[in-house]
Specification:
Chain A is α+β, with helices and mostly antiparallel strands. Chain A has helices spanning 2-19, 26-29, 43-47, 65-68, 81-84, 86-94, 103-107, 132-135, 178-181, 186-189, 192-196, 205-208, 221-226, 229-233, 384-390, 395-411, and strands at 151-153, 165-166, 169-173, 239-249, 268-276, 282-284, 290-305, 308-323, 375-376. Among the domains of chain A are: 1-55, no CATH class; 226-392, no CATH class. Chain B has 4 domains: 47-107 and 173-221, no CATH class; 118-170, no CATH class; 290-397, no CATH class; 412-589, no CATH class.
Chain lengths: 418, 626
């Protein structure tokens, strides 16, 4: 009833403003101009009342009371993961939160949906449709977003922190997503409606693309039935192996860690054992389809007081992987052996092939590319039986393999200028 | 020791008399010399330094090495004429000290690359657009590889940014100059660099209270006749980092984690770098040290002045393991043989008649021999015997075409690769010139893009063989002038007449017993130099891109676009080059066979592959659709 009344008042005000017969008093003092599609909208249509003015009509704490009068139902967004951050808080609760009850507030709170204008125009009165850069306030670095434009996070050490910076992140130049090259923006696949409805996107690959059967890989039924398109077509993905949070008190040795410091609270140093940005390992996602997976996170914690480690040093608090969509789509893929008979890709690395000797350095896990002791939180690792199955060299496999390689080889010239 | 001898004299049997007497005479003679002998009343040296370690049994006299006057009591007066006084083995004195006895060794070391660093300087000149003259750490004359006399200019006079880089960045690691202030990487100059090793903090920790705790000094006054791996690692821990890779250490991403005892870790080394553990070289795991493979001629030179370390090095994998031909050996013909002399300090001595294995240059190892149908390597320090497996004639090692490959192209577990070396030369700030020993205008600093271990690219090396290569270097130079203007911004130098980045043939010293699998290498174009990539129809598209281009991979040197294989980086060294289109095609074509003929011992690999066989009746039947 109240909102209906308000709506009537708003409409009345709007009409009267347009007629020029009466106008609001607000702008006598507040020299503010609203730009964009809301330019002609009277102040009180968002701020609601002169006597009981809504200070921040778009705030999440007020469930965007000033916006949802017209944009009905959109307050549901505040119940969705982007606002509740239920996955992130859940992760912290079962990992770093065990060592520090306030960990999340200290280290993870910079990405927190505070209201509609976080994305819609930013400065409050310049209300606008979100541009990609609005998404990248949060969706950058290790959190899928800027990957789309070919940016991978660099190593945390200051030796590697160099080059161009975008959205506060120095980045390693990678090949951008094909869709970015074609001019598509985030919103072209992620509509407001889909976010409000709790779906991560409004479009799937196959809404626009039909797999061409002229492509050998597409003619293999198992590929199309059992795999996400992006299992093959993600050209690369940022991967962080071994996420370390070190908590210090009274320890001058903290200054010896020459790593970037903007990723954690003052009392912490955040570092990572190894970063990669090649084709990510594969596992099964929540729909049971083969999908890229990556560590998110394999978390270690050391509490350092008076320059001494107390309790257990480099304590492994989580070894969690996530099935995800890297947003680095290219037409090309790896060749057959990028997956088939490639044990590392599915975390079946044989002990004899281990390069990084984690246990020699007290890091508990035998290898990052070994499933033991690790899990996929929103899916699972590929079962060993399925891996054996896909590594069998059947006649069908060999035939398709020959066709694929022949196609590449036939394309390579017989002589080169050099 | 002397005391026990004297007591023993009292109770000797007549049968021993002659032998003991002659020993006694020898001792008397030693006592007569001014020196370190404890009983020598005349020696002021031992009165002040009573518990200092003996250098060795044969180096008992202080003054013959150190100079000075052992008869004067006053410290300053007695020290006045000393060589050094800290290090008589320094190049300023070595002619009068070590070299007065070890002339053969001194002559070799003087033209040794570790001392002249002519190779290092030359390569910097080549890749930083420097002048073409040959320089060395201190200048001087020696004989080149052809035996022709040559004169090297001192690097102090190399008035070019390449000289600056050497003097301010690279010169810390060489035998001509002491480096006393780098944690984990300090060393003396001259002979002492290897034979009187420093510890991590370059502090003397021996028995002499007058010197204990002071530095920079060797950790002990006892000579290291046979330097261990940790001695080599004091220098060989940067650039190619071979001493790290060999021991299974990696200074990768400088992340300082995991911590150790609450400090950055797990192992800290020079330059504020942390080391993590990776799989070590198979030889290290077996217990072998650097000098078990590397001869004294590798490390101390053979008397000729080379222009690159790969020319001075005389050892190769094939010496012990065989290649197309089995290892070669030569008998020790006489007592004057170098192998006999050199092995005197080993736990086991080489004797006349032994069949000594030959290096690639055809000279005898002093610790590798042929006995009972096998090649044995003696651990020079450990005295352990290692049996070397000879691979000549085994099917895996007689794949047609693989004769062109270096052993380590397949047997490297990892090859450390540093991509993107962004060097800033700031002329507005002072930098330490380690040759002039003073700060001069111009300071270098360095940042890096990305470090990688596996996979690794292959290309042709100076021997025309397929070898592992690593960036060498991908230098992007920025020069800031004294007025803070930027005269060069991320500049790529001209090399072989063209602005291009460079890769260098390189053996990482991280050898594995197990080779890279056939399909692993042939099936992954990253090994051919395409970098990490995706394949789209007939194109290979890099995914890690150089900042200065739209589509060239940073971690490779080849692209395949429109069917054309293009190389856009040089491989340094003469006759070296990336694989060409025909070679790329040939390497990839092998996959057509590998998918069924998976093993290297398959007889089809004994001769050149015939791809037309795929169309014969047998193959058509095997591969026909159901």
């Amino acid at each position: 009833m109240r909102s209906m009344m308000l709506c009537i008042v708003a409409c009345f005000l709007l009409l009267s403003a347009a007629a020029g017969e009466a106008r609001e008093n607000c702008t006598d003092c507040h020299k503010i101009a609203v730009s964009g599609v809301h330019a002609g909208v009277p102040c009180l249509s968002c701020h609601l009342s002169e006597s009981d003015t809504l200070r921040d009509p778009a705030s999440a704490s007020g469930r965007a009371a000033g916006c949802v009068g017209c944009h009905k139902g959109y307050q549901a967004l505040f119940g969705r993961p982007m606002a509740t951050r239920v996955r992130e808080t859940g992760f912290v609760a079962r990992s770093f939160g065990r060592m520090d009850g306030e960990f999340f507030g200290k280290n993870c709170n910079s990405c927190h949906l505070q209201g509609c204008t976080d994305c819609h125009g930013g400065k409050g009165h310049e209300i606008a449709k979100p541009r990609d850069r609005d998404c990248f306030t949060c969706h950058k670095g290790y959190f899928v977003g800027t990957d789309y434009y070919g940016m991978a996070p660099r190593e945390d050490s200051l030796r590697y922190q160099r080059g161009d910076t975008a959205y506060g992140e120095p980045f390693l130049k990678m090949t951008p997503d094909l869709h970015a090259e074609a001019g598509l923006t985030c919103a072209d696949c992620h509509s407001m409606a889909s976010l409000v409805a709790g779906r991560s996107s409004s479009k799937g690959c196959r809404d626009c693309h039909k797999p061409k059967l002229s492509v050998v890989e597409h003619r293999i039924a198992a590929h199309l039935e059992k795999m996400e398109c992006w299992a093959c077509h993600s050209a690369w993905a940022a991967q962080e192996y071994g996420t370390f949070y070190l908590r210090f008190s009274g320890s001058p040795s903290k200054d010896l860690y020459r790593v970037r410091r903007d990723l954690s609270a003052e009392e912490y140093v955040k570092s990572a054992y190894l970063r990669k940005q090649d084709a990510p390992p594969l596992g099964l996602n929540g729909r049971g389809k083969v999908s890229p997976i990556r560590p998110q996170f394999i978390g270690y914690f050391t509490d350092i007081r008076q320059d001494r480690a107390i309790w257990e040093e480099n304590r492994l608090l989580a070894a969690e992987w996530k099935a995800f969509f890297p947003h680095t789509v290219r037409r090309g893929t790896v060749m057959c052996e990028g997956c088939h008979d490639n044990p590392r890709r599915f975390l079946f690395e044989p002990a004899a092939d281990r390069i990084y000797q984690l246990q020699a350095d007290g890091m508990t896990l035998p290898s990052f590319w070994d499933q033991s002791g690790q899990k996929v939180v929103n899916g699972s690792f590929l079962p060993a039986a399925r891996y054996r199955e896909l590594s069998k060299k059947t006649t069908a496999y060999r035939r398709a393999y020959l066709e694929r390689w022949q196609k590449l080889i036939d394309h390579v010239e017989a002589s080169s200028p050099r | 020791m002397m005391k026990t001898q004297k007591t023993a004299m009292g109770g000797m049997t007549p049968a021993d008399t002659h032998k003991k007497a002659s020993l006694f005479l020898l001792l008397l003679a030693l006592l007569a010399l001014p020196g370190c002998t404890r009983a020598g009343k005349a020696s002021q040296c031992v009165l002040c330094h009573p518990k200092i370690e003996k250098v060795s049994k044969s180096h008992a006299d202080c003054v013959s090495c150190h100079g000075g006057d052992a008869s004067i009591k006053n410290k300053y007066a007695s020290h006045l004429a000393m060589y050094g006084p800290r290090n008589p083995a320094a190049p300023e004195h070595w002619e009068k000290t070590c070299g007065s006895c070890h002339l053969y060794q001194l002559d070799r070391v003087r033209s040794n690359l570790m001392y002249t660093t002519t190779g290092m300087i030359k390569n910097i000149q080549l890749t930083w657009e420097g002048p073409e003259k040959l320089y060395s750490s201190r200048g001087g004359d020696d004989y080149d590889a052809a035996g022709k006399a040559r004169l090297l200019k001192p690097v102090a006079g190399l008035n070019h940014i390449s000289g600056e880089l050497y003097r301010k960045f690279c010169s810390q690691c060489h035998v001509a100059t002491e480096s006393g202030e780098v944690y984990g990487a300090s060393h003396a100059s001259g002979c002492a660099a290897c034979h009187f090793p420093y510890n991590d903090r370059a502090t003397y920790q021996g028995g002499d209270a007058a010197v204990r705790g002071k530095g920079p000094y060797a950790a002990s006054h006892a000579m290291e006749k046979l330097p261990g791996t940790e001695v080599c690692a004091r220098c060989h821990n940067r650039s190619g980092r071979i001493a790290l890779s060999y021991q299974g250490l990696y200074d990768g991403n400088n992340s300082m984690v995991p911590t150790r005892n609450g400090q950055p870790g797990p192992v800290m080394t020079s330059g504020g770098r942390n080391l993590t553990h990776i799989a070590s070289d198979v030889h290290f795991a077996a217990g072998m040290e650097c000098i078990d493979c590397h001869t004294s001629r590798d490390t101390m030179g053979d008397g000729y002045g080379y222009e690159n370390m790969y020319l001075q090095t005389e050892v190769s994998c094939e010496d012990c393991h065989g290649g197309a031909r089995p290892p070669r050996y030569q008998r020790i013909a006489g007592e004057s043989d170098e192998a006999v002399r050199e092995s005197r300090g080993y736990a086991m001595q080489m004797r006349q008649g032994m069949k000594m294995i030959l290096t690639a240059k055809g000279r005898k190892y002093s610790n590798v021999f042929y006995r009972d149908g096998a090649v044995w390597v003696l651990g020079k320090r450990s005295g352990r015997l290692f049996k070397s497996r000879v691979i000549t004639g085994t099917p895996e090692h007689s794949v047609a075409g693989h004769g062109r490959m270096e052993c380590y192209s397949c047997h490297s577990r990892t090859v450390v690769q540093c991509y993107g070396c962004h060097t800033t030369y700031d002329r507005s700030k002072p930098g330490m010139d380690y040759i002039a020993k003073m700060a001069t205008p111009g300071r270098f600093s360095e940042k890096e893009d990305y470090r990688m271990l596996y996979p690794f690219p292959l290309a042709l090396n100076q021997r025309g063989k397929i070898s592992t290569v690593t960036p060498g270097c991908q230098t992007f130079v920025t020069v800031i002038e004294p007025d803070l203007s930027v005269s060069k911004d991320e500049y790529v130098a001209r090399f072989k007449g063209k602005k291009q980045l460079r890769f260098a043939p390189f053996y990482s010293h991280n050898t594995g017993k197990k080779a890279i699998g056939c399909g692993e290498c042939h099936g992954n174009p990253a090994f051919l130099g395409f970098g990490q990539h995706v394949v789209s129809g007939g194109e290979i598209e890099g995914t890690l891109i150089c900042e200065q281009s739209a589509d060239k991979p940073l971690d490779g040197f080849l692209t395949l676009q429109g069917g054309k294989v293009r190389a856009y980086s040089a491989i340094t060294r003469e006759n070296s080059r990336p694989l060409n289109g025909a070679e790329v095609r040939r390497a990839l074509s092998v996959n057509l066979c590998l998918v069924c003929h998976e093993k290297a011992k398959d007889p089809i690999y004994r001769k050149e592959l015939n791809y037309r066989a795929l169309n014969d009746a047998l193959h058509r039947r095997l591969l026909s659709a159901p």
